[in-house]
């Protein structure tokens, strides 16, 4: 399967360079470009790519806001899901957290090699998450909740949809059952589960379930 990609960056030379790097991979096809967040949103609506590679600092509507709006809009169109892979020069905590809170599926720095970029695009397209090794440790430390957090602390780091997913996972639903209950595709469910694990610092579903009950986010049945 070919992964379709849109490139969003305010620098034409950067877009041209990324396009050239990806052109050697027959499984990835760049189908469009955008020079700011507004154009990125329009390109996603028009082209419905599998992945949009998004810069963060662009004039007008920045990458974080564009990501938030793209992700929010797709809550209503789960079968035409475009995932966001942030590709940026800036390795600052505020940028990383803004991108992840907006709903990005991955975060990669521009010094990454062509192979790593292509791998990140494919993984994100498959519904998984990707974090640049340079920021993984900081993100885990920032999002890892202290022992025995209250339910409000758990809820605070999750979007409404992610809270719903965690609740159902804690009830024992499989991915297939989540698809049926939420009327979402399997790829979309995998993306939500991956984000729940990442944001709560849980190594797997079992750890997320334990956290949900220990914190009181989910109450055990009477």
Task: Looking at this protein, list some descriptive labels.
single chain; 222 residues; alpha/beta; Rossmann fold; Arc Repressor Mutant, subunit A; 2 domains; 6-stranded parallel sheet; 11 helices; 53% helix; DNA-binding response regulator; Tscrpt_reg_LuxR_C
Report on this model:
Keywords: DNA-binding, Phosphoprotein, Transcription, Transcription regulation. GO terms for molecular function: DNA binding. The chain has helices spanning 12-22, 37-47, 63-73, 93-102, 114-125, 133-143, 151-156, 160-170, 175-182, 186-200, 205-215; strands at 3-8, 28-34, 51-54, 83-88, 106-109, 130-131. The protein is α/β, with parallel strands linked by helices and 222 residues long. It has a six-stranded parallel beta sheet, sandwiched between helices. The protein starts with a strand and ends in a 7-residue tail after the last helix.
| Radius of gyration, CA atoms, in whole angstroms | 17 Å
Query: What is the H level of CATH, i.e. the homologous superfamily of the largest domain?
Result: Response regulator
**Structural class of the secondary structure composition?**
alpha/beta
Poorly predicted ranges: none
Q: Percent helix among the residues?
A: 40-55%
Overall pLDDT metric:
86
Query: Strand order of the main beta sheet, please?
Result: 2-1-3-4-5-6
Strand-residue proportion: 5-15%
- Give the name of the CATH architecture of the largest domain: 3-Layer(aba) Sandwich
Give me the CATH fold name of the largest domain: Rossmann fold
- SSE string: EHEHEHEHEHEHHHHHH
Give the tally of β-strands: 6
Strand count, sense and barrel status of the largest sheet are: 6 strands, parallel
Number of helices: 11
Please report the first level of CATH classification, the CATH class of the largest domain: Alpha Beta
What's the end-to-end separation, in Å?
47 Å
Overall body shape = globular
